[in-house]
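Batch job 17 of 40 flagged for manual review because the log was empty.
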Amino acid sequence: MSQQGDRPATTDDWWGRLYDESARDTGPAGTPDDTIDDRFDSAADTLGGGDDLPSTRTYGHAVDAIAVDDDEDDAGDDEDEGVGPASRPPAWWESPGGRPVTRTPAPAPESEPAPAPAPEPSVPTPAPVAPAPLTPRPRAPWEPPPAAFDPTDPAADPTPPPAPPPAAPRDPRAADPRPPAPVPPPPPPAPAPAARISHVGDSPPTYEPEPTALPAADAEELDQLVADTVLDGARYGTYTLRAASLRGDSARYRGEPRRDALLTARFGAGPGALVLVAVATGARATEGAHLSAADACRWIGGAVGRSHSRLAEDIRAGRRGDLKSGLHRLTDRTYGKLRARAAELGRDPEEYTASLRCLLLSADPDCRTRVFFGVGGGGLFRLRDGAWQDLEPLVPEPSAIRGAPVVGYGSVPTGAGAATEQTPDGDRLTMDLEITKAPGPLVEEPVPPPPEPFRFRASVARPGDTLVLTSVGLAEPLRGVPALGDELAARWADGEPPGLATYLADVALRAKGYADDRTAVGVWEA
């Protein structure tokens, strides 16, 4: 209710008088009416900070409820004095990117129509300003590396590289200028390896091929035991040596010792070295046959070793006569020791004896002379151009054996050949073989000849030859079973020496009806 007692003013009338354009902005009220401006001025005077407090100004029929400082207040005064908004720069809230100013239109009173709003002055829209390019800052060590594409990186190009244009389709009817690649022919199929047989003949041998029983042993005579199989090999000069000795099927089945003995030895060194291979076989069905064979190899080896320098020189010089007479004396001396050993054991000389066959090979690469000598049965063969040749020397009849007594039994050489073998110091071969010339015991009866005549042969090897020296156990099937010789010739036809294991398997190739021990020495010529 007003102070004059008039009727209370309605809400619409109060708001209409407050925001009437004809009303004054500030100043003392001309009427006793209480207005908001009056109250604001009163509160500002009471607090004493009217200059610092925000003020409320009226722009036309709209109100900007914005707190301004002194500069803004001065700008408002200029606007009241007629300076339009077009004459000043736009404020931050008037910028296109700034915060829009909220204007609330005043409602017109019910009793009278709302006046038409005054046209606002047109404010020119400023031209858009392009933002300044951002300068990338260096990445700190703790920051992760940028992604594959960083929009803030001026060097980053989000556009993928253009794809290469597709190749033009090729006309299948056009001829290819390049010649077709040659297709290599398929390799020829490898020949199937031939199956290695373990025996020849129509039926297998009677006994098993592997050992079944060991010989009996004596605790006090263990040095008399012999192994079931001996295998050895070497290479000197132009030849390769292979040697093997094994028990026969019969001895393996009965548990008897191997009667064959094998000795391989080298005396000296360098080109003057001499290689000896000795093969001996004890008498069949006699006690200690393996011991007599071992004694024969050991004694002939000792005699050759003591005279190896002169023997090697004679072989390289090709002195066939000197070699034959000298080796004959060495062989007889060995058999003389065997008879002496039989006398010590109280046994008959024919029981404690052995057949002996030897090879002498020079280590000189320029020497291809191969010397064979011995007494007793066995075989000497040569494989040349795929065919076997039996080189066993012919043995004369016992009645045709003539000649002077053998040097070493107390006699001296006589006859026409004595001058060539005699030297001022005595017989050359006798001296070199350490056989003294002192007269022996008086012999009233002639010395019994050895059970077998002496055999000797010297031959010159050719490249590709294979010389084979065997005991009786392999010589007999080679002569009696042609299939055995054919099989071995096929295995050794290429001229390459087999390995030790392969050579042992070749020597062990069996034939029905031949079950004795087997010993074979092979010499492959390069």
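Reviewer: the log was empty due to a logging misconfiguration, but the result itself is present. Residues 55-86, 403-444 have pLDDT under 50 and may be disordered. Unflagging and moving on to job 18.
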